[in-house]
Structure prediction request, 334 residues.
Amino acid sequence: MKIQTSFIEVVTGSDLVTHRLPVMVALARRPGPVVWLTGCVHGDEIGGTVVIQEVFHRLSERGFDNGAVHAFPLMNPYGFQTASRTIAVSGEDLNRVFPGDQQGSLAARIAGQIFTSILATRPALVLDLHNDWRRSIPYALVDPYPGQRLREAYHLVRRFAAASGLPVVRDQGQDATDTPAGTLSHELVRAGVPALTLELGESLIVNEQNVASGVASVFRVLAELGLVEPRDEEIAYRVPRVYRRRLLDYHDRPLSTTNGIVRFAVAPGDIVEPGTIVARIHDTFGELRETLEASLPGIVLGHDDSAVSYPGKPLLAFAVVRPTASRPGGRAPA
Prediction:
C-alpha cells in the first residue's frame, strides 16, 4: 500500500502565484472500490480536514487489501485562511456552485476542478465531511429522494448512511426539489454517484471527540464497502435504540417569534416528544416572553451558537419522526 500527495491547479492570482488544492490518495495492493473523502468546503469547518488526516494515518499504519481512498482535505483554502464559511475574496458559498464551470467565477472554477477530478475516478462513494453548531451531535445527512432514475444511487447512500453508526437524517423535504441546488452531494447523486454528508459537530476549532467519532464513522463505511476489516468502531454518541437504522427528517421548528435572550432547556442528543419545552426567551429585565416546545418526536441535533433571538430565527435542529402527510421546512445544514 502507498500514499501519494499532490496538488491540482485552480487559478493564478494577481501576484502571479498559482493557487492549488491539495489531493491525497491511498492505494491498496489490489484494485477495488474507490472512495472519496472531502473536507473544508466551508472554510470555518476544519474538523473534516483533521478526520481525513487521521483516516490516512490509520490506513498508512494498518494498510488495506483492495481499493483506493482519495481525498480533497482542504477544498476552500481561501475561506480557511480567514476562518470564513465562504470564499473570502468573492463571498461565494463553494457548496452552492457544483458541478462548477471552468469559465465561471472563482468558486465555480474550484468546484469544477473538484467535481471533474472525482467523476474521473468512477467512485463507489463520496463522503463529504462538514461541521455544524458548536453544541451538536454528529449525524449522517442524506439528500432527499432524487427520483426513479437515480433510485440505485439513492439506496446505496441510505445503506452507507446506516453503516456509519450515526443518526441518519434526510435533508429538508421529501424530494430533491426541496434541496438547494449546487451542493456537492446533491450534484454527485444527480450524476449517479452515491454521495453522503457527515455533519461532525462544531466548526471553527478541532474538537478531538468529534474527530474520533468522524474517523470511526468513516471506517465503518469503508468496512461496509469491503476496503478494510470490520472493527467495533466507537462513536461518542450512540443512537437510541428506537431510532437506529431509521430515516429521520431534519426539522428546525419551532422558530422564534420574538426578540430576546434564549435559554435552552435541552441539550444535543436529548430525546424530545411533542410538548417538550426546548427553550425559553426572556427580555432584558428577565421577563418570560416566549416558551418554545417540540412539535414532533425525535432527537435534538444541536442548538444555535448565540443567545440572541429574533422573529423567524431557527434556534434548534432536530431529527424527527415526521407524519408522512406533512412537509418539512428548515435550512440546509451542509
About this structure: The chain has six helices and 17 strands. The longest helix spans residues 208-225. Residues 325-332 have pLDDT under 50 and may be disordered.
